[in-house]
Structure formats: C-alpha cells, structure tokens
Specification:
467 residues; alpha/beta; Immunoglobulin-like; 2 domains; eight-stranded mixed beta sheet; 26 strands; 16% helix; globular; Prolyl oligopeptidase family serine peptidase; serine-type peptidase activity; signal; EstA_Ig-like_N
Length: 467
C-alpha cells in the first residue's frame, strides 16, 4: 500500500508552489551613499512542467543604482530550505534542511515585480537563476512522507554583494548583502489570477462533516462561459488550494494559450483534505467508491449555481491526474448527465471495478484519456488502456486516448545531461504534463483527432464538446 500511495501522488516530486512569506519589519543597513536606506527582496516563482520553482530574486536596494555598473557576477545567491522530517523506525521528528548556491543567468535593473526596465537607474535589481527538473533547492516545496503531500518549506535566501555598484550620483553602493532578518516576500506568478479562499462545508450522511477547499478563476467578461474543472493528484491534498494550483502547472488553464479555445472559460480547482481515492477509512478504495463523491458533487453544483449568470451549464468539463483521474471517472458515473466531456490523465480507476452498466454509461460521454507506458505508479494496462478498449468495443463514438511511450520535455530547454542531449525524461506517471501544455493531438491509433475534418488539440476538442 505504501508503494501505491507513493505512486498516486500527482506531484510527489513535483516542485510545487511558493510560501507567501512576508516579513513586515524593516532593518537598517549601512550604505555608502545613504546610511539608512531600506533593503528587502522578493522571491518570484512560476510553474514549470515539473512544478514551481523560484527563478528570480528582486532586490530592493532603497537607492537608485546605475545599470551600467551592474554585471552578472555582482551578486552570489544562496538558497536554504528547512522542513520537518521523521525517522519512521524510531518515530523521532527532526528538522531537515538542504542548501545550495543558485546559478545566476542574468542580472538587470527592473521594477518591483522583476520586469526589466530600460531606465539607466532604478532601485530594483532582478537576479534570474537557472532552474531544472532535478534542482530541488529551487523548489519552495518539500514532499512530506508523513502526509504524502507537498508542503511549503521554510525558505531563506541570502544575496551576497561581491562587487561595488554606483548610485546615480556616482557614489559607491555596497550595502546590498542580505541578512536572515532582511524583509522578504514571495510572488507566485499565475496564482494571483485565482481566488484561493474557497471553502465548502458538507454534512455527508455516511461520512459526517467534510470540509473542502478550492481555487477558482472567473474571467471578467459578463457572458455565459464554459467551466473547466481540474481534480488534483494525491500529493496536492490538504487545505491550501495554492498547492493544488502549483503542484502541477494547473495555472496554465487560465493562460491565453488554453483560454483562447474556449472564448474565455471559468476554472474550478477543488481540493480534498486527504485524497480522492479515500474510501472513508483512510485507505485506497477497493471498490471504486470515494467518501468525497457527494461532497464534491455538491461543491461543483453550488459553485455553478452561485455563478449562474456566468457559467454555461451545457459546457462543464471535468478532468484531473492520477487520483484526480480516478475521481473524474467516479464523478462521471455519479453524474452521467452533468458533464459535457472529460479529460483524465494517468487515471487510477481499476478497470476491473467497472461493470458492464458503468461502461454503458461512460460510452455516451466524450472522454479523452492520456497515459504513458513508462508509468510505474499506475498499471495502464489495467486502468486507462483496458477501459478505453472496452468503451470502443461497446460502440463509444467520442472517446479518445493519447498514449505515450514516456513523458519527455518538449520545450527543448532540458536535456538528460551528462553529455546526453536527448530530451529530459520525466517520471512516466506524469502524463498530465502534455495535457496542461495542450501538447496532445493524436489518438490511440496514432492518427490525429479531428472535428469536421480538422485536426485538433485536446483543449480545442474539449472546447467543442457540448451537452
């Protein structure tokens, strides 16, 4: 069961999300040009295919700095992460930590959010740093083996000034080395578009009080629009919806690259305090039932009702990864006439648990499955592949299945390394990466999926489905 749990974490190694750390006190620093200028910094995170990473430090110098005096090696950046650990043999808890010097790629004058400026002087300096799927110290997350979820780390950065700078008057600026007490905060790019305060309380007739949290995105346009629902994997459970947004690159659902297909769509990201496959005992389901089916259904319907003027109830789409892929099928079976289409990836619903009646129900719902043969967490031959073949045999007309040998980087930015320039290969379970990149267009037979003769991507196909 331990291996099963490890595998069904949609992002157990995914580097997810940043802690929104804000220290409100200011500290004084000695400065050759101004003796009491404030010094602070902001860490900037964004989501990558493997999860979020800190890729910028924005230093508020407190004085106007000459850009021409700034070079790539003006600073050195040290990152330190602290997080709780446990010795499972002795049950002794202790503080874990790791640290590393971050590789600086470029340094420039900017605004307070890290956007480069063309002005000759500015008080903000942005330091961009290298990120990579294997660079754990760039992550603001640690995977907690006790809860099997991603958790924020205590993140501390030290920016060390190695070369003198000049202010606009030509005076030396040499006070820019930070200390543990230097005020700092975090920007989570993409998350700011979402409302992460959603809470839903439900009294279940069998399981008692269930409290769910959720993130949501609603475009400003006042018109009926589709609703895209994403159900996270086991590693993103908890009570902080930011984890569900950044444990995987779910913020991409609000990006223009996906939104353009829908003509603007609302996005709903529910979060369970444990995991979707929980059968009510804290164990993984053995019969396909989840303690969260009724509460999740109620949450979705309440959200739709609250936004009745904004949501087109004929265009509600549901999908998710791993545990969330399981829950996608679970929700389709519980609400067969509610969703216009579904897009599960690396789904963990054991096909042996699906009855002939279940298959007869699912065959009438447009579904696009995604999985990879390299998946060592979920046996695709007993889940998505088996279910897809049964659906096709049952006469399903609108069911597709993109099946990859493995999950590779398609950006061209990341390589296997050690002299091997082949694309970086991700964990085979992470087949949601091409889903959230909308990098999927072929069916199980290798041929393009088409609508009215036109080849379409997964998201374009999804946007065209209507009850």
């Amino acid at each position: 069961m331990m291996n099963m749990k490890k595998g069904l974490l949609s992002g157990m190694l995914a580097l997810a999300l940043t802690s929104t750390l804000l220290v409100s006190t200011n500290v004084s620093a000695n400065n050759s040009s101004e003796t009491n200028s404030p010094l602070s910094y902001t860490l900037v995170t964004k989501g990558y295919d493997w999860g979020p990473a800190v890729y910028k430090v924005v230093l508020n110098t407190g004085v106007p700095v000459e850009g021409k005096s700034l070079t790539k090696d003006t600073f050195k950046v040290l990152a330190e992460r602290k997080y709780p650990m446990i010795n499972f043999e002795t049950q002794q808890k202790y503080d874990g930590a790791d640290s590393n010097s971050r590789t600086i790629e470029r340094t420039y004058l900017s605004d307070e959010n890290g956007n480069k400026t063309s002005l000759p002087t500015a008080q903000y300096i942005t330091i961009e740093m290298k990120v990579h799927p294997d660079l754990g110290t760039a992550s603001p997350f640690h995977f907690d083996l006790q809860s099997f979820t991603n958790q924020y780390v205590d993140l501390q950065y030290t920016i060390i000034q190695q070369k003198s700078l000049q202010d606009q008057a030509g005076n030396p600026v040499e006070h820019l080395t930070t200390r543990p007490g230097t005020p700092h905060m975090m920007i989570e790019q993409g998350v700011e578009r979402f409302d992460t305060s959603g809470k839903f309380n439900y009294k279940d007739s069998k399981y008692g009080q269930i409290n769910l949290t959720y993130a949501s995105y609603m475009p400003e346009q006042k018109s009926k629009k589709p609703l895209i629902i994403w159900l996270h994997g086991a590693g993103e459970g908890g009570t902080d919806p930011r984890i569900a947004l950044l444990g995987n690159k779910v913020t991409a659902l609000a990006d223009e690259s996906i939104q353009k297909y829908f003509g603007d769509a609302a996005v709903l990201v529910p979060q369970t305090p444990t995991f979707w496959m929980n059968d009510g005992t804290g164990q993984y389901t053995k019969d396909g039932k989840s303690m969260y089916t009724r509460s999740l259904t109620a949450l979705i319907k309440q959200y739709v009702k609250q936004h009745a003027a904004d949501i087109d109830t004929d265009r509600i789409y549901i999908g998710g990864c791993s545990n969330g892929g399981f829950m996608t099928l679970n929700m389709l079976l519980a609400n067969p006439d509610y969703f216009a289409a579904a897009y599960p990836s690396a789904e963990a619903y054991d096909d042996a648990l699906l009855s002939k009646k279940d298959i007869a129900t699912l065959k009438n719902i447009p579904i696009w499955f995604t999985a990879a043969g390299a998946d060592q967490t979920v046996d695709t031959s007993k889940t998505s592949t088996a279910t897809y073949k049964r659906l096709i045999a049952a006469g399903a007309k609108h069911v597709h299945y993109s099946y990859f040998d493995n999950v590779l980087d398609t950006s061209g930015l990341y390589k296997k390394g050690n002299g091997n320039d082949a694309p970086y290969e991700y964990n085979g379970h992470w087949s949601w990466i091409p889903v959230l990149n909308n990098d999927i267009s072929r069916d199980f037979n290798g041929k393009p999926v088409k609508i009215k003769g036109k080849a379409v991507s997964l998201m374009e196909w999804l946007a065209n489905q209507k009850k």
